[in-house]
Amino acid sequence: MKLDLENGVVEMAHGGGGRAMARLVEDIFVRSFDNPLLAQRNDQACFDLSAGRVAMTTDSYVIQPLFFPGGDIGSLAVHGTVNDLAMAGARPLYLSAGFILEEGLPLADLARIVASMARAAAEAGVAIVTGDTKVVEKGKGDGVFINTTGIGLVPSGVAPSGEKARPNDAILISGTLGDHGVAVMSCRENLSFEVDLLSDSQSLGGLVSVMVEAVPDIHVLRDPTRGGLAATLNEIARQSKVGMALQEAAIPIRGPVRAACEFLGLDPLNVANEGKLIAICAEGDAERLLSIMRAHPAGRDAALIGRVVEDADCFVTLKTSFGGTRMVDWLMGEQLPRIC
Amino acid sequence: MKFVDEFRDGDLARGLADAIGREVREGTRYHFMEFCGGHTHAIFRYGIQDLLPKSVRMIHGPGCPVCVLPMGRIDGALHLAKLPGVILASYGDMLRVPGSGRDSLLKAKAQGADIRMIYSPADAVGLAEANPTKQIVFFAIGFETTTPPTALAIRQAHRLGLKNFFVYCNHVLTPAAISSILESPEVRDLGTVPLDGFIGPAHVSTIIGSQPYEFFAEEYRRPVVIAGFEPLDVLQAILMLIRQVNEGRFEVENEFSRAVTRDGNAKAKALVADMFELRRSFEWRGLGQVPYSALRIKEAWSAFDAEVRFQVPDFKSEDHKACACGAILRGLKTPADCALFGTACTPEHPIGSCMVSAEGACAAYYTYGRQRRAS
What we know:
The complex is a heterodimer. Chain A is α+β, with helices and mostly antiparallel strands. Chain A has 2 domains: 12-154, CATH 3.30.1330.10; 170-327, Phosphoribosyl-aminoimidazole Synthetase, Chain A, domain 2, CATH 3.90.650.10. Helices cover 29% and strands 24% of the residues of chain A. Chain A has 9 helices and 15 strands. In chain A, the strands form 4 sheets. A 7-stranded mixed sheet of chain A has the order 10-12-7-13-11-14-15. Chain A is globular. Chain A starts with 18 loop residues before the first helix and ends in a 13-residue tail after the last strand. The mean pLDDT of chain A is 94. By secondary structure, chain B is α/β, with parallel strands linked by helices. Among the domains of chain B are: 71-172 and 294-309, HypD, alpha/beta domain 2 (Rossmann fold, 3-Layer(aba) Sandwich); 325-370, no CATH class. Chain B has a 5-stranded parallel sheet, sandwiched between helices. In chain B, helix 5 links the parallel strand 3 and strand 4. In chain B, helix 1 packs parallel to helix 12 (231-247). The relative contact order of chain B is 0.16. Classes of the chains: A alpha+beta, B alpha/beta. The A-B interface holds A 190-191, 249, 255, 258-259, 262, 313, 315, 317, 319-327, 329, 332-334, 336-340 and B 1, 4, 8-10, 13-14, 17, 37-38, 41, 44-51, 65-66, 91-96, 106, 116-119, 123, 141-143, 145-146, 203, 231, 346-348, 357-359, 366-371, 374.
């Protein structure tokens, strides 16, 4: 039976291991992810890796809504994992993709998500070489959950790591903050507002490869996803046992993000990003690294936002544009809007 | 952002800070209380204390509606949320606050209660329309600012003929709380807590106007400057208060004239008066019982009163004995003086009222100002 991609929905049979499942895998996944390793149709992908250090990471994606301005759960599932590899300085090579589908999910939505994954993978230069599909009863999932695992190769001499920030190091950010979180929030069911903004979801693999080529000794690379810049810098500060001093005026934030955060009572420094990175490097490398970043499309708005300082308390502080100083703390629990 | 950035201008801030520096008198100390959590938040968020001379001390008052709600009322909301067929709706920052059993509405939600975060009471009316088989309880909190929207929601539910919309009313009144602070023996009789003036509420005053503060200024001989929530508003208000103190004046001045008039919003006040009446007394977390400091729904509208419809038990709860919130709210202590601050009591595990919301003095100090104590 042919899949009805226009009006059909995911049924329990699509996870049953029978002909319906084979059809789903063939018509949606293999066709979209098209690559020689997947085409072998084995239960695993086998390949050679050149000598050197290998980076490996995994992440699961459960976002609602599934489609948001500037992306969807599919593109996010590729970018998120590719970026986690890139933050080791690695060149991402292969991904696996595991799908948990909820009975009743329109096949058209699934096809759209998978096509978007395929596009994102092609752009990032990775191949989705193995995968898995399960179907759960209606009400036991949230449309679709995706897990991706990735591996990549780390060039020799490159070894950024969270504990390597040193006093006087420069803290760079690759672009504007909060775009993803606000774009997604703008289309949540209980809070729809119109905002001229797209999620920043994108692969950072290309940007990182030019960065590590120019400055192999980048001390720390990390993408400020959930918890935003604030959480990520606090993590690094604690790992490296240092403090950080930021300049509010230097932190790039788009007007619509500032405005949305303003009326929702949120702090853009706590809002998630899916296509930005923080780079911490020696003071002397900062200018060159910044210009390399700005020359790349994924780092056009890159900026130097502060310095690493000595601080036994590992505090991240911010000099406000207003002239005072405040702490930039971890987010406590879920970010909730204030009443007044 | 137009109309926002203008009030956060660093150059203007430096100019005002310089003016304050010139205005303060050698040997005089100035103690001002900002009543509102919104001001407390602005002071910490923008680091305003860094721009003030050492002789100016800000005391962070009880003006955070989430903070002052006693745990017994949160227990009441938890009780309502767990009733079968009930959907409880409330504002975001109310959901995290623990009741006496350490359970918050967020935890009750995780355990299966149907609790919704809303941005406006109108959303709760919408829930009632969309869920005719459920009983929707709006957990209404807040000062005079959030009371008119609650009144409008009740009126809307009445117009729509909804029989499944109820309000658990916890609206409280600002002037009564200011009186309570000024009447406390430490301030009034003993004079052990210096309190030289008030920064008056911003949003609250857009509703009630500047007139209600005239009594305080006169009776307690303390200047009041009503100020907006932007950092430049706060600096300007501090400058105006210092001038009043220096000149021996105790007047109500209005820095927030772009939004506040003497008489306030007559329409909103009439709406509230039509629907609510004073409670004889209401417990404030940190201040204790404050006479005539809260509102309840009038009998004519009792069909919408959750306390009438569901018979909420009168939960009693006491704050932790070592908690210094009561003293902090009245300026007797600072957060750093509290033995629980930053150790047992943190924003993740708040014990006292000042830690439960980002606008509370302890939470603001913890989140934005901890580096001061360390340095």
